[in-house]
Amino acid sequence: MDREHIRNFCIIAHIDHGKSTLADRIIEKTGLLTQREMQEQVLDNMDLERERGITIKSQAVRTVYKAKNGEEYVFNLIDTPGHVDFNYEVSRSLAACDGAILVVDAAQGIEAQTLANVYLALDHDLDVFPVINKIDLPSAEPDRVINEIEDVIGIEAMDAPKISAKMGIGIEDVLEAVVAKIPPPSGDEDKPLKALIFDSIYDPYKGVIVFFRMMDGRVKRGTKVRMMATQAVAEVVEVGTFGAGQFIPCEELTAGMVGYLTASIKNVRDTMVGDTITDDDRPCSEALPGYKKVQSMVFCGVYPADGAKYPDLRDALEKLQLNDASLNYEPETSVALGFGFRCGFLGLLHLEIIQERLEREYNLDLVTTAPSVVYKVFKTDGTSFDLTNPTNLPDPSEIEHMEEPIVSAEIMVTKDFVGPIMDLCQTRRGRYISMEYIEETRALLKYELPLNEIIYDFFDALKSRSKGYASFDYELKGYEQSKLVKLDILVNREEVDALSFIVHADSAYDRGRRMCEKLKDEIPRHLFEIPIQAAVGGRVIARETVKAMRKDVLAKCYGGDITRKKKLLEKQKEGKKRMRQIGNVEIPQKAFMSVLKLEED
Amino acid sequence: MEIYIHIPFCEKKCNYCDFLSGPADPKVRQLYVNALVNEIRERAAKIGRGEKVTTIYFGGGTPSILETEQTGAILATLFEEFDVTDDAEITIEVNPKSAGGKLQFLRGVGFNRVSIGMQSAHAEELELLGRIHTHDDFLKCFWGAREAGFNNISVDIMTAIPGQTEEMLAETVNTVLRLSPEHISAYSLMIEKGTPFYERFGETEGPVVGEETERRLYWMTVDMLKSHGYRHYEISNFAKPDFESRHNMGYWKREHYLGMGLGASSCMPEDGAEVRSRNTTSIEAYLKDPLAREESSILTRDEMIEETVYLGLRMMDGVDTDDFQKKFGVTLRSLYGDTIDDLSAQGLVYEGSSSLSLTDMGIDYGNHVFAQFLR
Asked: Which of A544, B179, B185, B271 gives a 20 to 30 Å CA spacing to A388?
């Protein structure tokens, strides 16, 4: 297949605007799969993704389309993750494309992520053409949305296909537009091999399978490839392209094509997203731009609910890491929770996904501690270090100052909710940057916010204060000096290390109070009274009390009751098992998690 | 062994009652008695006359709702089919309203103990509870039982009734004390699912009167009864010396018992193992096949050990540790040393030379203590 008949593209959209459904339709219409073979959403083959309605790991599909001009075109549809946590992965996937279909919901119009993704695509010089989806909805206003796209984004939208991916309306138009509006790839087969890694997965039989886009040159079985950033070298065992959900080996991949290779590579850390593959015997002069080493933004302690499961948790993390180079972990110990790991994640969603995968795929019961961002601690002795676990904060007398990460955030919201959202940003120590109305009823708010103020429950708060209408996007801006303190929680006068966290001095009282209130509800009554205290530097700033239980006894137990009453006692005992003993207080594992969501309704 | 006979009928269901019982017309009652007599015969044929029967207990529902001939026929069948000892304790639960006129007969056919559901001396409490009897009915019933020759009478009273004050309860207790029954059960009201009380009070967790009040009422009752010569021998039961309910003690000491009638539970040896089982709870199924079982499980040694401890601890004398060792070949301490030390340190149990029992504080937190002994 010559380059003229290849189209490498992706679909970009705000969550729920119909990206995956459109991808399914494209695959279906290009005839690679029969209707019957189609799963609900072919691209999302992890259960978890399906339930969340988002795509986590980028993948690619190669289909063949016979256009109205009678010629066959190869479509490489590269799927991109749909969440701000995976911005870097998105950018690498975009770099592998020559164009993008922008899907906009005919009822909802442009959202914060639509904008963020479009700008990202334009930054990568992609040709973007819009598609208006969900025109079957009663509330659809395709013409309004078309105007909005032209006004706000400034791209041509008058002839945008009006479709319903769900109902299968207008899909032909999209396919023709791909042929007409997305340029064929450029590149030179005769130049040295240069290819961009946009994903890699670990397969127990084949080792790492690297997903990449050929820029220049050619690659086949036997080519000795070098990853330019990690310097890993390996001999190619197999190259091929992507069927829907399967790998199709082929002879050779050449400039412009999208495919995979295997080379008995043992670890995805050798094949980082964004790295450049070249030929070790005939390397290209310089790597592709844009490679970044992925940094963990959010850390938290992950502990097995049952201490005996520690080795299982370690094995599971090892396996997950094979597939996810952005997951970091190292062992740590907590007085309250025992042996576990401090894990680093791209963001809160990434954290939640890993946690769910550990629980679901590896059948582990977990307790996680409050997520923390990475603080920079500058000590009086002139040294500094990155703090990922609040427990490791030195004595205040040894600290010169501390810095915390700040993000630039964009929030799109309808006019009615501007007030509440600004209020929210203000309480989260946001710095107002600007506000512009992108149309009469909708505003784009720009704020700078400390990352530690948004990793807890900012998104939930945003949704609840805007009745679900606000959308949100952010990127790391840098570090700023800040007045930070460690907030400790004492249960029955014993410090619970797993509940400590770093907070801005001004929010310490409020956070402490809410922590205590929450814990009061979560910790069951004991035979004695339990004080719950929040303290900063040894000074108690908030207190609640779990009153003592006065009575727990069944008045009657006769012949007919024995089996039933025993079940009751067993339940009581079972409940205890899921608790952590701190001194003589039993704290349910739930309590450790509940303090993560402190927003008052 | 002991025998329990369940009579699942009553005139009207009380507002707090979640027992397997309800009103039924006389025809159904007669069919039920026929099925029950069949069950007795068939079970007896299966078990054989090996174990002597030391207690028989007619519970309900309201056993006194049956015609005297019916009750008599059931008891006669038991005498025929089982080896009932001469000094067996034979109890029937009666409602003060329906017992009138039947007591003489019941005594005559062999019952030697009656348990009367008094609950309260206050009309407004009786009404709230949905009882069909009045305080006068109760007094008549009590004296009627005495006249009939019952010299072992138990009276049930209830504590923690919504709205109950210490004064009100004290009056009820004093009324009972003046009658001087041999045995008193004082139950703290529980709000059970599926009862009218649950609809009405289910929202509140724990006792409607509040935990503090509930405990105050409980301990006041204990003090009053103890100071009048009653032995507090189980969490909710009191008796004059030697008048403890032998039947109920059997449950807590893990004697074998054979329950017959709708939904009745048994704990009997079967093929060398101990089996807990329950009869069907469907009246249709029961009338068709009175041997129909709803559930049945073989107890493991661990389960028997657990039961021995947590049922034993309900009695104020506690678990007899010598007996325990005889039965299981190990000491209680070797199995539960840490648990016992822990609970002792918290002041919840008391370890005597040959017993382990609840302290007063342990009574308040009985379930917590019991749960610690589950393996």
From this structure: A544
Return the pLDDT at A298: 87
B208 and B314 in a single domain? The answer is: no
Residue B189 lies inside a defined structural domain of this protein = yes
B205 interface with A at CB cutoff 8 Å: no
Radius of gyration of chain A (CA): 27
Is the predicted pLDDT of residue A37 greater than 70, yes or no? no
Phi, psi of B254 (to 5 degrees): 60, 45
Q: Are residues B231 and B316 in the same domain?
A: no
The CA–CA distances, whole Å, from A101 to A151, A177, A232, B115 equal 18, 9, 34, 83
Please indicate, yes or no, whether residues B239 and B367 belong to a single structural domain of this protein: no
Residue B335 lies in a domain: yes
Among B250, B275, B291, give the residue marking a domain's end. Answer: B250
Banded pLDDT at A45 (limits 50, 70, 90): very low
B48 compared with A240, residue with greater pLDDT: A240
Among B250, B266, B292, identify where a domain stops. Answer: B250
Write out the residue range of the structural domain in which residue B363 sits.
301-375
pTM: 0.68
* Residue A32 confidence (pLDDT): 57
Same domain, yes or no: B305 and B239: no
The residue in chain A having the minimum alpha-carbon distance to the alpha carbon of residue B306 is: A566
Output the pLDDT for position A36.
41
B-chain residues near A569 (CB < 8 A)? 310, 367, 370-371, 374
B244 and B151 within one domain: yes
Domain match, B331 and B230 both: no
| pLDDT at A425 (0 to 100) | 94
**DSSP class of B133:** -
Nearest Cα of chain B lies from the Cα of A552 at a distance, in angstroms, of: 5
Q: How many CB atoms lie within 10 A of CB A578?
A: 14
In terms of CA atoms, which chain A residue is nearest residue B250? Answer: A559
Contact at CB, B248 and A558, closer than 8 angstroms: yes
The ipTM (two decimal places) reads 0.87
pLDDT at residue B59 greater than cutoff 50:
yes
Which domain CATH number covers B14? 3.20.20.70
**Average pLDDT, rounded, for chain B:** 94
How far is the C-alpha of B33 from the C-alpha of B69, rounded, in Å?
10
Question: Cβ(A258)–Cβ(A241) under 8 Å?
Answer: yes
- Co-location of B220 and B358 in the same domain: no
- CA–CA dist B157, B119 (Å, integer): 4
Which CATH number fits the domain that encloses residue B370? Answer: 1.10.10.920
Interchain CB contact of B285 with A (< 8 Å)? no
Residue A49 has pLDDT above 70, yes or no: no
Give the number of domains in chain B. 2
- Cβ <8 Å between B310 and A552: no
Distance (Å, rounded) from C-alpha A436 to C-alpha A117? 19
Å from A85 to nearest chain B CA?
43
Q: Which two tokens stand for residue B108?
A: 């005559």
Give the A:B interface size as CB pairs under 8 Å.
Answer: 89
- Using pLDDT thresholds of 50, 70 and 90, give the confidence band for residue B238: very high
Identify the pLDDT of residue A199: 87
Per-residue pLDDT reduced to its tens digit, A263-322? 988 888 889 889 999 999 999 999 998 888 777 888 999 999 888 899 999 999 988 887
Tokens of A261: 């290779």
Q: Are residues B136 and B245 in the same domain?
A: yes
Q: Sort out which chain A residues have CB atoms less than 8 A from B248's CB and list them.
A: 558
Mutate to test the interface with B, among A528, A547, A558, A577 (most CBs of B within 10 A): A558
The single residue listed with the structure tokens 């004082």 is: B186
Mean pLDDT over each residue of chain A, to the nearest integer: 86
Within an 8 Å CB–CB cutoff, is residue B298 touching chain A? no
- Is residue B307 one of the residues assigned to a domain? yes
**Min Cα–Cα distance to chain A from B179, Å:** 24
B276, part of any domain: no
Residue B267 to residue A559, Cβ atoms within 8 A: yes
Distance CA B328, CA B302 (A): 10
Q: Residue B192 carries which side chain, given as an amino acid letter?
A: E
